[in-house]
Design a protein that fits this description.
68 residues, elongated
């Protein structure tokens, strides 16, 4: 295999790797947007957690205990 062929294969590999990462990131961002829009989860509360991180602050979400 010549050096030119190796560089071409590496270039295509980098392109498809970046494309794959872009698709994964875009899908994750879209899922966050959709969950925020439908009201499934409020991410504003999580961003406020950075400012209010004391031990006395109330929990962000109520958790239901599963009975065994």
């Amino acid at each position: 295999m010549s050096q030119e062929t190796a560089l071409m294969i590496a270039g295509y590999g980098k392109f498809f790797l970046i494309l794959f990462i872009f698709i994964i990131f875009y899908g994750y961002a879209f899922s966050i947007y959709r969950r925020q829009k439908t009201g499934e989860r409020d991410f504003e509360k999580y961003s406020n957690l950075v400012l209010d991180d004391s031990l006395d602050s109330p929990p962000l979400e109520k958790r239901e205990r599963k009975k065994s």
